[in-house]
Amino acid sequence: MKKFEAPTLEDAYQDASHFFGCSIMELQCEVIQNPTNGFLGFGKKNAIIVADVIKTQNTNHYKMKESVNVFKDEAKKEKEKIVNAKVKIEVLDDHVSENFFKEKTASVDFIDKTCSDTITPTYNVPLAKEIEENLKELLSKSCFSVDTIEVDVVDNTALIFIDGEDSALLIGKEGYRYNALSYMIFNWLYAKYELFVKLEIARFLTSQQEMICIHLEPVIQLVKKEGRAKTKPFDGILVQIALEKLRDEFPNKYVAIKTNKNGEKYIVVNDFIQK
Predict the structure, then answer these.
(1) Which of 83, 92, 138, 179 is 20 to 30 A (C-alpha) from 261?
(2) SS3 per residue for the chain
(3) Interval 51-95: pLDDT, tens
(4) Which stretches of the chain drop beneath a pLDDT of 50?
(5) What ranges do the domains of the chain cover?
């Protein structure tokens, strides 16, 4: 993971893409600071992000995946050859024919298993347990009644689930307390373990994702029709949910968070600038 600073978010994303040697859509980014123009040149701020390749087993994951696909194709061809060979040698001794078939099939099955195992996600159970215990200790000192805290660490992301009697209070009006807690946990886990965070309290995150999907449907249709669009301003976690949804929907377009003159965040979808 690495921090990037540039005059605009687009430049920061491109710098991260060049550094990791992958496309922008293969990055997982967290915006630390949005760019501002300032006044008469004073108070101007650059965009700052932290970024990493989505799959963290190594930065050559996508090249590895491509090689695995080629390997699987070769395995498929090998299986076809085996079937054809088995038919042809049935006239030979049954024992020879059976052994030949078993050896070849076992070899190809091993190839399939190796290919499948190569791209499975990585679970860090000890680290998840450590984070879970620390969260339990933290929330036990708060005034909120929480009875469920579960943590999974998958690749470079901590998936946190919290539930209990005071879930609604922990979320707060319009999700403001949820945003504050999510931001606090992110700063802790990223600084100590270089982990991103997905926090779910009761069904808050799920319901927000469902709501955002409904809201983004006209935006998605507009992009498909005209090639570009922008969303209305979003608060807190909603802007990140919308960003992920639109990036999944349009992997070959520039999708980024922008800030208007009132400090509100919205998302633009456009074509990449050709240099």
Answers:
(1) 179
(2) CEEEEECCHHHHHHHHHHHHCCCHHHEEEEEEECCECCECCECCECEEEEEEECCCCCCCHHHHHHHHHHHHHHHHHHHHHHHHHHHHHHHCCHHHHHHHHHHHHHHHHHHHHHHHHHCCCCECHHHHHHHHHHHHHHHHCCCCCCCEEEEEEECCEEEEEEECCCHHHHHCHHHHHHHHHHHHHHHHHHHHHCCEEEEEECCHHHHHHHHHHHHHHHHHHHHHHHCCEECCCECCHHHHHHHHHHHHHCCCCEEEEEECCCCCEEEEEECCCCC
(3) 887 654 444 444 444 444 555 565 566 556 555 554 444 444 444
(4) 56-68, 86-97, 100-101, 104, 108, 111, 115, 275
(5) 2-53, 61-118, 125-202, 206-270
